[in-house]
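Troubleshooting: if your tokenizer reports a length mismatch, compare against these two reference records.
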Amino acid sequence: MWKKHRNWLTPVLFIVPGCILFGTIIIASSVESVWISFFDWDGVGQKSWVGLANYFELFADPQFYVSLKNNIIWLVMFMAAPPLGLALALLVNQQLAGMRILKSLFFIPLVLATVTVGVVFGWVYDPNYGLLALIFGLFGATAPALLADEHFVTFAVVAAALWPQIAFCMVLFLAGLNNLSSDIIGAGRVDGARGWNMLWHVVLPQLRQVGFIALAVTVVGALRSFDMIAVMTSGGPFGSSEVLAYQMYEQSIFSYRFGYGAAIATVLFAIMIVFITWYLRVMVRMERETR
């Protein structure tokens, strides 16, 4: 039987464990989260059916719109990561003396835990002894307490999170640059492409798929932002730096409102589904174009 059907049994045996894991951890957990959002539940006792009450309360909650606004700020600012990552990749890909050392320095954010990055930037933003205070002190000024200012705290946290995100995008583009077609590059040089023309008409078209992957990873990273906020501000001051993921965590863990937290998670999941659907459609179209 094995010899007769091994052409299809072999791939099935490799795929089934992954499908079971994905179905259990992702699909089943997502369905369970949506189901819990229709209950009033403290996470321990009996669930009490409330229907759409959690959603009605959520859409009437001012904190929800603060969190949603902060998610949009994260998304807009994170859009700087792919172009900056591309610029750094083009820089460190040059065959120049000392470039290996410079490349290793840009890799540092990737080997640091996000918690470490948050702690480091917490020191940087310290208005008394941090690097920002030293810079302002050179000009005889007092550094602002960015993490205590409700108007600037989100921008400060996103700026800290951009450091490793830019480095990640740089690595993606470096991989793409190392896989460029030498034949196409050579043909471009024969046609007189140099500098900007070479980059725009020869290099960037070959980095299209890599760039799209970098964009997708950046968008998902912005929407699921949590750990930097937990380390640097814990959602403060007065909830002004919360995003949907952190609000979900706070409502579920600290307020014992798992149904309400699940409603927030469902809304965030719906937002991500819109992006994922668009992403898959574009990827399928790109695959068809390359055939």
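Reference record two:
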Amino acid sequence: MDSRHDDGPWLVVGLGNPGPGYAATRHNVGQMVLDELASRGRLTFKTHKTNATVAEGRLAPGGPRFVLAKPNTYMNVSGGPVSQLLRFYSLDPSHLIVVQDELDIPFDTLRLKHGGGHGGHNGVRDVIAAIGTGDFTRVRVGVGRPPGSQAAADHVLKAFSAAERTTLPILVSDAADAVEQIATEGVTAAQNRFHTAR
């Protein structure tokens, strides 16, 4: 889907778990991307009546308006705040971009898509259930599969390794670039840029 929207802000939701204990984990990479976007626009996150912390504004003069939102709930029940945010801002799901961690994509890789199923991601599963459609865009940030026999649930709740942390700022910046390009040029243009090998 390539239509750009000038009739309302883009709602960008970073999935993750609340609290400082989870902030640096793989599961919270979506919220790291929102922090990067907020930094670019010098926007400040504030508490919001939709059970989320929200930062609003433009990231660049003349650019699209954004509502950057981090649900205050745990990952697996992200749908409630997302549904409330769409209603509060009177937005269609086509204005929604969800930034998520993705086990099935290698670390340091991005994949973008519009629509489709949840792919086994419980946060996305809950969003689809709550808003009644999968008709939104996802920025899927690769965190890779766990090594050896480590459980996937344990892997995503651990911090990035020292080696990963050297590359992580670039990955987060690329994901933020992808969000901006989706809003200004559409999903296909962003895919053409970010789906190619580095």
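Descriptive notes for reference record two:
- Residues 1-5 have pLDDT under 50 and may be disordered.
- The chain has one domain: 10-194.
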